[in-house]
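Priority: medium. Attachment 1 of 2:
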């Protein structure tokens, strides 16, 4: 049973999603830290910039390597991805603001918490909407 899961399409997809997500996190967290600490940009602005850069990276690898996308991506697919991502960015910013400004948690620790929450949201929504062979919009 465990062996079947390890060789399953879902396991391979989760593994690839984790690799891409891990690399995207390194880009996101690294850029957030650099922009905030060295460029002295407010953490919420740095967070939008770093999130957006890592999102572009994540999108390209998700389409190429993670999800089973059999059709050519259309402008509707890209719009759907952007809408889902903007919601993810909103979740990210909310967690960052609540953690840093209200709970006084170090912004990099909030980034880790935010990333975990947004990662779960991203996998579920991308699995439901992006991987479908029919357009949702």
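Attachment 2 of 2:
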């Amino acid at each position: 049973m465990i062996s079947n899961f390890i060789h399953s399409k879902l396991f391979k997809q989760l593994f690839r999603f984790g690799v891409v997500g891990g690399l995207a996190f390194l880009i996101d967290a690294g850029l957030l830290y650099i922009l905030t600490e060295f460029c002295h940009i407010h953490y919420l602005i740095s967070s939008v910039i770093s999130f957006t850069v890592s999102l572009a990276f994540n999108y390209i690898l998700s389409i190429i390597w993670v999800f089973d996308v059999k059709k050519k991506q259309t402008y509707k697919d890209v719009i759907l991805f952007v809408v889902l991502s903007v919601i993810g960015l909103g979740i990210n910013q909310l967690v960052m603001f609540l953690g840093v400004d209200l709970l006084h948690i170090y912004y990099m620790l909030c980034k880790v918490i935010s990333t975990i929450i947004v990662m779960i949201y991203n996998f579920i929504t991308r699995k439901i909407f992006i991987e479908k062979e029919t357009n949702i919009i």
